[in-house]
Amino acid sequence: TGVDVEDKVLGSYSLEVKDTVVTVKEYSVDGEINSRWRVEFEHQKVQYFMDINGFSDAQVKKVVKNLKIY
Questions:
Q1: Per residue in 41-65, pLDDT tens?
Q2: Which one of 11, 39, 47, 64 is most buried, counting C-beta atoms within 10 A?
């Protein structure tokens, strides 16, 4: 299953971490109970992506807020 292609987006939001905008999207994946999360941001002209499975929204926000961006 390709994220952003076949999976249904349930919601998205942005958070600011150290002057960097981080976008979080929640996906529903057919055949799976838990949501899949995609975290994306760009820093110093480099794009970063992180896929997270089985976390709650609060857990994803905690991960994002604790990113070490220098």
A1: 999 999 999 999 989 999 999 999 9
A2: 64
Residues 6+ apart with CB under 8 A from 26: 9, 10, 11, 12, 35, 36, 37, 57
Nearest CA among 32, 15, 31 for reference residue 23: 15
To 10 degrees, the CA torsion angle through 49, 53, 56, 57? 20
pTM for the model stands at 0.83
DSSP-assigned beta bridge partners for residue 40: 23, 49
